């Protein structure tokens, strides 16, 4: 068969469920290495989204591939729900070490961010004996029933599949992007915290709440964080009311923001941390790591899966941690992130459509508005992304109008310069009216 992107996409559409895909560009991967993806027609792309924050160590990192091959040569799987495997034991020790909190911690392994969110919901309910869960409007926590129930980013996630988990309350996320009308971060935080607390005054008895789930940097809403002071007030509120604080680090974890976990930017220690995506460099693995007494409150076999913590994925995760440490990737994320933010600030001098540039390491959001900076523009961001794709970049958008810049942490100086030069060119072409509206028919996305 003569493989072309379109031929394979047609087959994909014939056989694969629509609910599992939000296609941005017609790229069918043939091979990938480092930050470069090659499609079946031989075109190469620099991936600026790390396959949705999965490839923090880049595609097929030699170390990861080596450790996976070595483990496969020993054994692929052994029934670790009845017996024991060494990679899993070693990995749990490492995870406990890199996760914030100077208390005794334990690990529950999973396969996707979503099912580990469910683990955290179960642990929070079991430990506290309470049923209510708080999460935030705009958050994405995943697609299992529990994770969908606490998400609030897309009506289609809730349509036609109910009833969902009961006793879930979605409150307003304190978006720092709304801080501009306030005199100081402290004023803004106090105001937002007051609004948060009001929910517990009028209709949610705090003593019935098991946990607050928060993305410390909310991802799919457009990469926005609350102010640090708000996060500290939230921690205090949880402590005073016997509520657990759960950080969803599935998108921002494993070095992406220049720290192992993004909650560290707020100097707040959560009771549970949920991780996934990047942890095994592309192998399906997730985990919830946190207070031993909370984790161990789920009765056996309340969260047991046959392939949980599989030996090959555990080996991949162990080498992912090793690579992040040995290649000093936390610092690298911070340094490259500063360079990207600087380049976008330079671009912003010559365009009227960039409204906000925000970044933590290699999580960078660039928000685009119409020329008058009044209306968030989905069409603008689509045009920019599509033209980038035509120039060999994989760059998408979140929250409707925010460019999602989250490249692999191993991206070289040369590669990121090449990518930023192309992005600069695209903005120039936009300013000169060279990106036609017809491009809008080509890109669907989320
Ligand atoms: C913040 C966050 N939480 C949870 C999830 C769900 O993870 P998964 O798709 O691995 O189930 C995602 C996925 O995008 C995410 O970004």
- Helix coverage percent of residues? 25-40%
| CATH fold label of the largest domain | Aspartate Aminotransferase, domain 2
Hetero groups in this structure are: pyridoxal-5'-phosphate
- Provide the succession of SSEs: HEEEHHHEHEHEHEHEEEHHHEEHEEEH
Q: Determine the mean pLDDT.
A: 96
**CATH architecture verdict of the largest domain:** 3-Layer(aba) Sandwich
What would you report as the Rg, rounded to the nearest angstrom?
22 Å
Principal-axes geometry comes out as globular
Name the structural class: alpha/beta
CATH class of the largest domain: Alpha Beta
* Oligomer state of the chains in this structure: single chain
Q: Give the end-to-end Cα distance, rounded to a whole number of Å.
A: 31 Å
GO molecular function, one term: identical protein binding
Organism: Anaerosphaera multitolerans
Protein name: Aminotransferase class III-fold pyridoxal phosphate-dependent enzyme
Keywords: Aminotransferase, Pyridoxal phosphate, Transferase
Q: How is the secondary structure organized here?
A:
Elements: H1 5-15, E1 29-33, E2 36-39, E3 44-47, H2 50-53, H3 62-74, H4 86-98, E4 105-110, H5 113-128, E5 132-136, H6 145-150, E6 168-171, H7 185-202, E7 209-214, H8 228-241, E8 244-248, E9 272-275, E10 286-291, H9 292-295, H10 311-326, H11 329-348, E11 354-360, E12 363-368, H12 378-390, E13 393-394, E14 396-398, E15 402-405, H13 413-431
Parallel strand pairs: 3-13, 5-6, 5-7, 7-8, 8-9
Antiparallel strand pairs: 1-2, 2-3, 4-10, 9-10, 11-12, 12-15, 14-15
Protein name: Aminotransferase class III-fold pyridoxal phosphate-dependent enzyme
Keywords: Aminotransferase, Pyridoxal phosphate, Transferase
InterPro entries: Aminotrans_3, Aminotrans_3_PPA_site, Class-III_PLP-dep_AT, PyrdxlP-dep_Trfase, PyrdxlP-dep_Trfase_major, PyrdxlP-dep_Trfase_small
């Amino acid at each position: 068969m003569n493989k072309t992107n379109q031929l394979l996409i047609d087959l994909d559409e014939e056989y694969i469920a629509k609910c599992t895909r939000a296609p941005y560009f017609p790229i069918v991967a043939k091979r990938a290495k480092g930050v470069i993806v090659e499609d079946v027609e031989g075109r190469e792309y620099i991936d600026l989204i790390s396959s949705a924050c999965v490839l923090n160590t880049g595609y097929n990192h030699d170390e990861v591939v080596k450790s996976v091959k070595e483990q496969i040569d020993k054994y692929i799987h052994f029934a670790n729900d009845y017996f024991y495997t060494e990679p899993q034991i070693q990995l749990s020790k490492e995870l406990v070490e890199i996760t914030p909190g100077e208390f005794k911690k334990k690990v529950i392994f999973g396969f996707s961010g979503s099912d580990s969110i469910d683990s955290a919901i179960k642990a929070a309910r079991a430990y506290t004996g309470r049923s209510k869960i708080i999460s935030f409007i705009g958050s994405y926590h995943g697609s299992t029933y529990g994770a969908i129930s606490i998400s609030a980013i897309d009506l289609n996630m809730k349509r036609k599949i109910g009833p969902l988990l009961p006793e879930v309350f979605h409150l307003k996320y304190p978006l720092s992007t709304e801080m501009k009308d306030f005199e100081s971060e402290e004023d803004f935080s106090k105001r937002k915290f007051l609004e948060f607390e009001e929910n517990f005054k009028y209709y949610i008895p705090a003593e019935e709440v098991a946990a607050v789930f928060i993305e410390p940097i909310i991802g799919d809403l457009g990469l926005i964080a609350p102010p640090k002071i708000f996060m500290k007030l939230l921690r205090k509120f949880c402590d005073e009311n016997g509520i657990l604080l759960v950080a969803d680090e599935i998108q921002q974890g494993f070095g992406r923001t220049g720290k192992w976990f993004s909650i560290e930017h707020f100097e707040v220690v959560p009771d549970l941390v949920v991780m996934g995506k990047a942890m095994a460099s592309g192998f399906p693995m997730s985990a919830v790591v946190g207070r031993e007494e909370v984790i161990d409150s789920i009765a056996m076999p309340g969260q047991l899966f046959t392939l949980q913590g599989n030996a090959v994925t555990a080996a991949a995760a162990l080498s992912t941690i090793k690579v992040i440490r040995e290649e000093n990737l936390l610092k690298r994320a911070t340094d490259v992130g500063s360079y990207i933010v600087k380049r976008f600030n330079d671009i912003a001098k010559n365009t009227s459509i960039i409204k906000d540039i925000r970044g933590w390491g290699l999580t960078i959001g660039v928000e685009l508005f119409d020329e008058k900076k009044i209306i968030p523009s989905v069409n603008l961001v689509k045009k920019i992304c599509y033209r980038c794709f035509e120039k060999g970049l994989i760059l998408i958008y979140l929250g409707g109008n925010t460019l999602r810049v989250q490249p692999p942490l191993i991206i070289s100086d040369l590669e990121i310069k090449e990518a930023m030069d192309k992005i600069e060119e695209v903005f120039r072409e936009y300013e000169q009216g060279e990106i036609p509206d017809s491009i809008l028919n080509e890109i669907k996305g989320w």
